[in-house]
């Protein structure tokens, strides 16, 4: 099962439980305070997921390691390619 399928199954399950609780399909009489929290719960979860994603991206950018050896190797390959193309008559 792919990660996308896992996420879709989890969202479908949570959505079904949320819909059943908010629409009263289970026959439960929830207190007013629970119903007030239950209605905007998907929006809270969406905002929480967005904050988590933003924090994860920020952390990965902040802790990104440079590969100086690979950068030097790539620069030398670029110089070799330019020299080869210059020998073949291409100007930059």
Automatic annotation (TrEMBL):
Which InterPro entries does UniProt cross-reference here?
Answer: DPM3
Which pathway is this protein engaged in?
Protein modification; protein glycosylation
One of the GO BP terms on file: dolichol phosphate mannose biosynthetic process
Record-linked Pfam families: DPM3
What membrane topology is given?
Answer: Multi-pass membrane protein
- On whether Transmembrane is a keyword of this UniProt record, the answer is yes
Which residue windows are transmembrane per the record?
A: 43-62
What are this entry's molecular-function GO terms?
Answer: enzyme activator activity; glycosyltransferase activity
Function summary:
Stabilizer subunit of the dolichol-phosphate mannose (DPM) synthase complex; tethers catalytic subunit to the ER.
> What subunit structure does UniProt give?
Component of the dolichol-phosphate mannose (DPM) synthase complex.
Under the heading PANTHER family, the entry gives: DOLICHOL-PHOSPHATE MANNOSYLTRANSFERASE SUBUNIT 3 (PTHR16433)
Name the chain's protein: Dolichol-phosphate mannosyltransferase subunit 3
Q: Which organism is it from?
A: Rhinolophus ferrumequinum (Greater horseshoe bat)
The beginning of the lineage is:
Eukaryota, Metazoa, Chordata, Craniata, Vertebrata
Gene behind this protein: DPM3
């Amino acid at each position: 099962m792919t990660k996308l399928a896992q996420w879709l199954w989890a969202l479908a399950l949570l959505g079904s439980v949320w819909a059943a609780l908010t629409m009263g399909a289970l026959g439960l009489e929830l207190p007013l305070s629970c119903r007030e929290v239950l209605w905007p719960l998907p929006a809270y979860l969406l905002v929480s997921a967005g904050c988590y994603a933003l924090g994860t991206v920020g952390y990965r950018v902040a802790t990104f390691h440079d590969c100086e050896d690979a950068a030097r190797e790539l620069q030398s390959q670029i110089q070799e390619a330019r020299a080869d193309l210059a020998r073949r008559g291409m100007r930059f």
